[in-house]
Amino acid sequence: xxxxxxxxxxxxxxxxxxxxxxxxxxxxxxxxxxxxxxxxxxxxxxxxxxxxxxxxxxxxxxxxxxxxxxxxxxxxxxxxxxxxxxxxxxxxxxxxxxxxxxxxxxxxxxxxxxxxxxxxxxxxxxxxxxxxxxxxxxxxxxxxxxxxxxxxxxxxxxxxxxxxxxxxxxxxxxxxxxxxxxxxxxxxxxxxxxxxxxxxxxxxxxxxxxxxxxxxxxxxxxxxxxxxxxxxxxxxxxxxxxxxxxxxxxxxxxxxxxxxxxxxxxxxxxxxxxxxxxxxxxxxxxxxxxxxxxxxxxxxxxxxxxxxxxxxxxxxxxxxxxxxxxxxxxxxxxxxxxxxxxxxxxxxxxxxxxxxxxxxxxxxxxxxxxxxxxxxxxxxxxxxxxxxxxxxxxxxxxxxxxxxxxxxxxxxxxxxxxxxxxxxxxxxxxxxxxxxxxxxxxxxxxxxxxxxxxxxxxxxxxxxxxxxxxxxxxxxxxxxxxxxxxxxxxxxxxxxxxxxxxxxxxxxxxxxxxxxxxxxxxxxxxxxxxxxxxxxxxxxxxxxxxxxxxxx
Length: 552
Ligand code: ADP
Known about the structure:
Elements: H1 7-32, E1 38-43, E2 46-51, H2 54-65, E3 69-73, E4 79-82, H3 84-89, H4 94-97, H5 111-123, E5 126-133, E6 139-151, E7 154-163, H6 165-218, E8 223-227, E9 233-236, H7 238-244, H8 248-251, H9 262-278, E10 282-289, E11 295-306, E12 312-321, H10 323-358, H11 369-397, E13 406-409, H12 410-424, E14 429-434, E15 439-442, H13 444-460, E16 467-475, E17 478-485, H14 492-497, H15 518-528, E18 532-538, E19 542-550
Parallel strand pairs: 14-16
Antiparallel strand pairs: 1-2, 3-4, 3-7, 5-6, 6-7, 8-9, 8-12, 10-11, 11-12, 13-15, 16-17, 17-19, 18-19
Helix pairs in contact: 10-11, 11-15, 12-13, 13-15
The structure holds adenosine-5'-diphosphate.
The site of adenosine-5'-diphosphate has 19 residues, from helix 13 and helix 15.
């Protein structure tokens, strides 16, 4: 039995052991860092000298400096030796690592692999990846490379441990990037496929609509073409080739100009260019040379096609053969000319005879006859105006309407017209605003004709409100003469056509006599005076017809 030790003895023993431990630690450190070559160890059998071979020393230093952990195990798996790196990896002081089993640090999920590794490692060099926990229970992947080591004391298993977490992280990041790349590639491929499909469908649609257009273009009686925004023609229909007898090459782009009648080329080209510049509808009458050299009149119309942004992408045009209509119109004009001439002679005689009857004094006329003579006079007057209008129209068409121009005071002229109007239309209420002393160069008779036509229309087309306002005033370099009524007014489409030959508004409610010649004659007269004619109107509220002439 051990004698009981006193407190002081125990304290001394502890201090002795502590001192020995510190000494041992220093010695281990000295051996590890290569500061000692040999050491004397005291054991039960006395002092013994241990020499460290110089080659071992180099390796020890080398192992100590390694970035990897290094351990040697005995057959029981106990760590006999560890470098400082391994201790650092495991978050333990070196002296605590030695003596522990390596398995102590192996994560549960890697236990089986660890046993397999150790078993295999004792047989031959072997490697595997395992998860180890450090003393703070933090897990990390490691590569463990085993090989056996022949030591003086026997065989040991040396294991080098490489921290794989950075490599694994890199691999993980790489995989993540790869996955993203793969996703992007898949997405791009999908988009590509979609795009291809859309393009294929669009091409099909485009082809169908082009064929549709061609079919339509080739089956209309008109000649048709399409041209680019720069004016170059890029398509003609079959009718064009049939009519001109020329291949595409000869009339493509601006080649069509060669078959336009030389007298019509300037106007056609001007209007074509204006439309290209402004985008307004191209409309012109011209003559195109047929394959047999004969020119025929055509009415050309072209409209601009625009894309979603409103830009012109193409023009589509047609040329309609109006030669036959022109001929028919000419024949009609000729007939009107002859007929009105033929009517004029008996009409003049009729007027004369009626005057004689009216002024017959020898025997008093029966009372009942007098009103008939008045009625006959009125009818003859109407006929007279009609025939005069017809004659004017045929003269205008033949370019034979004459104007003897002279300087005239339009203010006075209009004032005297208003006086006459007061006589002719006593039921209407004329108001006038006339700026005095306005001079123009013109034919008084024809200008009176224009004003009286405006007035008679104002009377004709305003049955309820009998007010009519006539004004003459300066307007810039012009003088404007205007007649305002408060009658039925005109719609926008009617306004556009009102000055055309034989145009009449087909409104059954307001059907009145007339052939639609008056305003046409007026506009031709004003044109011959270098003036402008026009109308402002509110449908259902009234109209203002005016003409502007240059001031003298
Ligand atoms: P018409 O002899 O038939 O009146 P015009 O050439 O003088 O022929 O006029 C052509 C058409 O213009 C008429 O049919 C009529 O519908 C319309 N018009 C002319 N003046 C007026 C007006 N002051 N108010 C409404 N409509 C008018």
